Fold:
Amino acid sequence: MRKVDNSNMAAKLSLRRYGLDKYRGGGASADVFDCCQGSGEIWKAIKRPIKSYWGVDVKKGNRRITVKAERVVGNVNANTFDIDTYGSPLSIFRTLVQNTKQKDLLVYATSCNPLGSIGNISKESEGLAKVILGEDIASASPRQVVKDFENNYLHMFMVSCLCESWKVEEIFTCESGKKGVQYIGIKLTKGETK
Structure:
């Protein structure tokens, strides 16, 4: 199956506009870093006055830097991060929250079906399942348990396990229209957790 950029554009735009309107003055204070830029179509279609925008992608293309987001995301001077990846956003998210100097983050990500078309479960999900469920249970559980764990709880555990020094102000979601895929937004502030 061919991977297509920007499937269900309406849902992705709605989620991003909500966050920009609520937390970034409609976009006027948004310094956006797109971790999986592709052709940049999502942010071209936002129709908001974005303060600044740039991105990277692992695929070569015109007018973008070709690099894995994990290599640079922790050092980027931005306050809004888009992690709309074909796979799990966890490694990019982990690198961001553990290394950024920013104190106020708005993050968009895709919580996706880890089985996709090739039948693999992400290493991050397997690792989180072992931490949460226990090594013995997760290792002995059918692959479906780990798959369901990622599909249903990824965004909650992504935030709670990786954000010890961050306060979660809001997690907002919308359905993608595809089974097992959800778009999420997370507003984080550096400081004491509740």
Q: What stands out?
A: The first strand starts at residue 31 and ends at 34. Strands lie at 31-34, 52-57, 65-66, 80-83, 104-111, 166-175, 182-190. The radius of gyration is 16 Å. Confidence is low (pLDDT under 50) at residues 113-120.
